[in-house]
Amino acid sequence: MTKFTRRDTLKIGVGAGALAGTGLLGYRSAFAEVMAADVPAPKLAIENGAELRVLRPAKFVQGDETQFLANTERFTKETGVKVRVDNESWEDLRPKTAVAANIGSGPDVVLAWNDDPHQYPDKLIDLTEVAEYLGKKYGGWYPIAERYGKGSDGKWIAMPIGASGGAIVYRKSWVNEAGYDEIPTDIDNFLTLAKNLKKNNHPMGFALGNAQGDGNTWTHWLIWSHGAALVDENNKVIIDSPETIAALEYGKQLVDQFIPGTLSWLDPSNNKAFLAGEISLTSNGISVYYSAKNSPDPAVKALAEDIYHARFPVGPVGKPTEAGLLVNTMVFKHTKYPNAAKEYLRFIFEKEQYEPWQQASIGYWSHPLAAYAGNPIWTEDPKHEAYSEVMKNMLWYGYRGSLGYASAATLADFIINNMVAQVCSGRATPKEAAAEAQRRAERYYRT
């Protein structure tokens, strides 16, 4: 828990406008110089004596938390609003958020997971005014941000602040020894690489436990890459399909090449195994590279030179099908200080705070606003590039349907994770696991 109590007068200016150009190269080359017309900030009268409590996920890279708290301290200095930040474990963030929603008490602002805000939209403050201002100023929201941020009525119930991408993290020297110059872009060669790595005693390993980030990202990629989905465009459950069976059969072959023990892995597990030299390749955010670069252990620090990143290979569906762990900011209606809460969110999304936060995290959180593609963090180290367009490219959990209670609940219940784990552990055949996933999902998607 961290408290900031220093007071000062409000000095927030309108700041820079959005980029006028289009395209990633244009953003990156001219962000500081090319600005749109001034966009006036919403006039939010902060309540007298306002105090805020913020709940967010615990750090996975130290720079994330350090800069977030520094930005919050700056907000307190400039507004006089006391802010308490609680950093909650990844596993406990969702249940604690749900409790606050159900009892109408607790944190004012929450940095929630994925589509959790869609479980209780009637308990959240309308953020449309702030979201539209930020969109106009910073080049527009990516479509995935609008999907996660807007409720069924088109109003913003939340504003995604970033997503951690589940890219391929690998030891280049070991991949080269296995016969590949880089990560294959097709799944057949990816499986061959996995087999060669295992033969060389450098197996890969992905999380198969109920891992909020790493387990969800790769198991959803597996299903989507074969053309399968939990639901169709009308929210009809369709997971028990030939495409799912094919995905699970491929997944079983892939997992057979993994290091033992991945069925119990949570989000920290593959980081530890990779940095210990136990695995050659995993699915992760940029945190493994960050940890190696900043390690006080010379042996671990030396690994950074051999760590590279790549996007996931393309499956039979013929197009990228990547997922990401998204963080969605929202304000509960039970807050006594709604204007202070909205002003806080506006403040942390502004360039002066947002870009340093991304830089301190070396891009662990990819941006939802197009203008932040111009952040130098994406070009100062080529190894960051694989994470630069996570929110531009990612699909949503609940694909191909709409977001709402059912999509959030099925994700929270780890239905896709568990289906893949059942097959890969040998506890169920692909057909049995798909049928069980169908039954579980239909409990939430009631017609």
General description of the model:
This protein is of the alpha+beta class. It has two domains: 226 residues, 3-Layer(aba) Sandwich (D-Maltodextrin-Binding Protein, domain 2), CATH 3.40.190; 188 residues, Periplasmic binding protein-like II (D-Maltodextrin-Binding Protein, domain 2), CATH 3.40.190. The protein is built from 18 helices and nine strands. The strands form two sheets. A six-stranded mixed sheet has the order 1-3-2-4-9-5, sandwiched between helices. The protein has a three-stranded antiparallel sheet with strand order 7-6-8. Helix 8 crosses helix 9 and helix 17 runs antiparallel to helix 18. The longest helix has 18 residues. The N terminus is likely disordered. Its main location: periplasm.
Structure summarized in a few sentences:
41% of the residues lie in helices and 11% in strands. It has 18 helices and 9 strands. The strands form 2 sheets. A 6-stranded mixed sheet has the order 1-3-2-4-9-5, with helices on both faces. Strands 7-6-8 form a 3-stranded antiparallel sheet.
- Fourth-level CATH superfamily of the largest domain: Periplasmic binding protein-like II
Detail the poorly predicted runs. 1-37
Structural class assignment:
alpha+beta
Number of domains: 2
User: What CATH architecture label of the largest domain applies?
Assistant: 3-Layer(aba) Sandwich
Estimate the helix proportion, in percent: 40-55%
**What is the element string, with H for helices and E for strands?**
EHEHEHEHHEEHHHHHEHHEEHHHHHH
Widest beta sheet: strand line-up = 1-3-2-4-9-5
Q: How many β-strand runs?
A: 9
Please state the CA-atom Rg, rounded to the nearest Å: 22 Å
